[in-house]
Each structure stands twice: as structure tokens, then as C-alpha cells.
Amino acid sequence: MSNFSHQLHSSYGHPVLRHWAANINAFSTYTFVYPVFISDNPDANEEIASLPGQRRIGTQHLLEYLAPAIAAGLKSVLLFGVLSGSEKKDSIGSLASQPGNPIPPAIELLRQAHPNLLIACDVCLCAYTSHGHCGVLDSDGRIDSALSARRIADSAIYYAKAGAHVVAPSDMMDGRVREIKEALQDRSLLDKVAVLSYACKFASAFYGPFRDAAQSAPSFGDRSRYQLPPRSAALAIRAAERDVDEGADMLMVKPGTAYLDIVSQVHQKFPNHPLAIYHVSGEFAMLWHGAKAGAFDFKRISLEVFGSMLRAGELSLATNGCLSVDTGVYPCLTGVFISASVLIQKWFRMCVSDYRY
Questions:
Q1: Which of 96, 158, 238, 277 is most buried, with most CB under 10 Å away?
Q2: Domain regions of the chain by residue span
Q3: Considering only CA atoms, which of 59, 55, 56, 42 is closest in space to residue 108?
Q4: Which residues of 306-321 are buried (b: 16+ CB within 10 A; e: fewer)?
């Protein structure tokens, strides 16, 4: 059995990955990863009511949607697939790994138009299963972890073959990193595709707007049997250790704001693995609504929150807020990135030059 934790080429096969591998703990255009919700309706351009300023976007509008931000400095995106009808979903999430999934066409489009853009793909079954859970269920309605890990690997390979630079399993199944690594090795893709593991993903109430955006809420129960208990630091460290042992190239803690102690502990225990935080939909919406109500200035509070994440040990940050910081504009992202190039230039200039601890 291969020791994937000693096979390193996948960790630095792209310029952005090489920057992350340098462990540069400072704001720059490399820090931020922008989540994009890709609809299977090519003509989609839909506002997400619970996630201010964000949209579900189809491939016909994707390049126009992202072009100003990319031109202004955005280096990385994280793609999520969204199916437009429940009739397309089934018990095993078949469309997570076969035609009809909107992610491969989006990858092809982005790679052709923006060859230097790092394309990461979230890998999970929840948006594709009829029950909305992140894995395959057994006859008792519980997660079948082994079968789920195999299905997660199927989806990861589907995205890898389409040209993804990074696959990011967010399902929290035991053994899924090894399943993905073995599948990549079998297809001679091991040194071409990195694995960013959502290693410490907690069963959090902060995910509400995302589940609306991705149309992926569970139809019964919750995800507390496989996502981590919010109060358990020990399990979080064990989960990170599990994924490091299985060969994860990078680690993530999700959510961010309420879990900076976990970020710090993971960073201290695994200093040689790039560490990401997902500043999730509820965290972003909380700041946006608070600013809209006049409780605080959005730009200033965002800098404070993101700065605290950097201080705790984060090297890359996935957030819908990375393009939304400006003075007095809420939301900033409307239509097709109205003034987005100006906004992101201000944001990156502020992060790189003007931010002071």
C-alpha cells in the first residue's frame, strides 16, 4: 500500500500551490479563494436570497461573471455544482460523477480562458443525492462510510479528468482521502492533482445560506453523525491527523470565526501542510447584515476577522467576502460583478499595503 503522505509533487504542481507551500503568512492576492456556484442550467444567473450579492451562474455567463475579478488579481476559485431539479438526484448521487454535472464544462471553459487560474472543485454528494446527505445511506438510513468514500473518489476522478488542479473532499467520510489518492494513482493523475481536505469540518449552524445556494439541505435528520461536534477539539485534531496520514496535500478548518483555536492547534501540529479556512456563508452573511444594519463598517470588520484568521495560522481563505469589501456598498456583487474590478483592486491593495496588525 502506497504511503501517499511521502508523495509530494501534487502539492506544488501549480504556481498558486507553490505560493501556499512557501508558508507565507500575509495577505496577498494568493490568499483568497472565491466560491462559485455553477448551475446545470447554462443560462442561469440567479440571485441567492440568503447569501447577499452572490449568484448561481451557468456556463454561458461564467466568464463574464468572473473576468473583471480575475483581471484585477483573483488567483483561485472553488467550484460547487448545483442541479436545477430534484428529479435529477438519486440515492447515490449519480450525477456527481457522470455527464449532467455542471462542473466539468465549467472547468474546461475556465482553463481555456484563464490558464493561470487555480481551479479547485468541492467534492461531495449532498448536492446530487435525493436525501441531501453527503454520502450513501445503508438500509437503516445511516451513512455507509466505505461505499460513500468510493463514491467521493469517483466524483474526484471525474473532476480531475476534466482538468481540476485541486479536488477538495468536504464529505467528512473516513478513508476518503486514501480512496481519492489511490484512484488518482491508478489513473496516472497522482502528481497532477492536489487534495485539499476539509479535515476539520464541524456540524455548524453557520452553513444555512450555503445549503440554500447549493440546494443541498438534508431531507431528514442532520449531519452530526459525520461532521465534527462543535465542542470537540480532540476529534478535530484526530481528523486532521487521519487525513495527513492518508496523503492530504493541504488541510482546511471549516467554519473559521468560531474555530480559531482549532486553526491554531492544527497549524502547530502540522506546520508543513498548507492550512485553509473556509469563512462560510453564514459568517459572511452575518457580517453583511450587521453592516447593513449599521452595527459596524463592513470593510473594517472583514479585515479584523480575516486578520485574526491569518494570526491563527491560515494561509489561504475561501470566502464569498473576498470580493465584497468596499466603502458603503452592500452588496457589492450584483449583476455581473458591477464595479468588481475596482472593488477587488481596492481590497487587494488594502490587504497587501494598507493593512496593519
A1: 277
A2: 26-351
A3: 59
A4: beebbebbbbbbbbbb
For residue 213, the model assigns a pLDDT of: 52
Which DSSP letter does residue 320 get? G
Q: Which whole-number Å values give the CA distances from 164 to 15, 74, 126, 275, 295, in the listed order? A: 14, 17, 20, 19, 40
CA–CA gap between residue 152 and residue 211 (Å, rounded): 19
What is the model's pLDDT at position 143? 87
What pLDDT is stored for residue 85 in this prediction? Answer: 81
What is the distance between the alpha carbons of residues 116 and 136, in angstroms, rounded to a whole number? 35
Catalytic residue, candidates 192, 201, 292, 299: 201
Note whether 3 and 104 are within 8 A (CB). no
Tell me if residue 161 is catalytic. no
In the chain (357 residues long), the average pLDDT of successive 10-residue segments reads 85 91 79 91 88 86 91 91 90 95 98 97 93 86 91 97 97 94 97 96 82 53 79 96 97 93 94 91 87 92 88 74 38 25 37 39
Per-residue b or e along 223-250, where b marks 16 or more CB atoms closer than 10 Å to that residue's CB: beebbbebeebeebbebbebbbebbbbb
- CATH entry, 26-351, from 2.30.300.10, 3.20.20.70, 3.40.50.1820, 3.40.50.1980: 3.20.20.70
SS3 109: helix
Q: What is the pLDDT of residue 210?
A: 56
Question: What's residue 217's pLDDT?
Answer: 53
Instruction: Identify whether 75 is a catalytic site residue.
Output: no
Largest Cα span, the chain: 57
Q: Which of 254, 269, 292, 346 is catalytic?
A: 254
pLDDT at 197: 96
